[in-house]
Amino acid sequence: MGIQNLFAAGGVVMWPLLGFSVLGVALIIERITFWLKINKRQNRVVRDVLNLYRLDNVVGAIDKLRQNADLPLARIFLAALELEEPNPEEFRLALESEAQAEIPVLKRFQNFFETIISLAPLLGLLGTVLGLITSFASLNLGDVGGSKTAGVTSGISEALVSTASGLIVAIFILLFANTFRGLYQRQIALIQEYGGQLELLYRRRYERGGEKTYAATR
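^ thats the sequence. predicted structure below, dont judge the formating
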């Protein structure tokens, strides 16, 4: 069945399903590009920053983060490291606040995916119902077994095309939406892990600075 025949068989609901498909593919491509960038660079950059900070090279760590400010974890670390002499509690709050600000970026388009997943099967079902209404409206009970009855049967089978199309669109989007949700959850876990490591390093550095100040006053 060609594309034109497919749209004719599915009825008017095939057009919004086509729109959902095009929109879904565009958003999927954007999310794939986003997650590939993060997975390719972020872990290496964050490990380098933590190593620099562990060696007390704070300036080098901040420069490294600024060079990679397009990464979520880099922006989170910068929000804390660029504070002027914060205490450990302020440092932790800065990390947590920026992490919360990054969540919408990591979950971008998730609502669109969920909307398409919910509406596509319903549109397919609507197309089937409309097709059945049209078929039964043309049914002539006095012509059972005749050409009109055969046409009604053919119309019913064609109406099911819309349901199949709606399910295909929903399943395709659902596959990628669940994948992106898994990547988001993994990213949240990494933010907590690396953020905890940076906070621990800062607390140790802060305590060392306090000890030096106390020793100098004695």
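Helices lie at 3-10, 14-54, 58-67, 72-81, 88-106, 110-137, 147-217.
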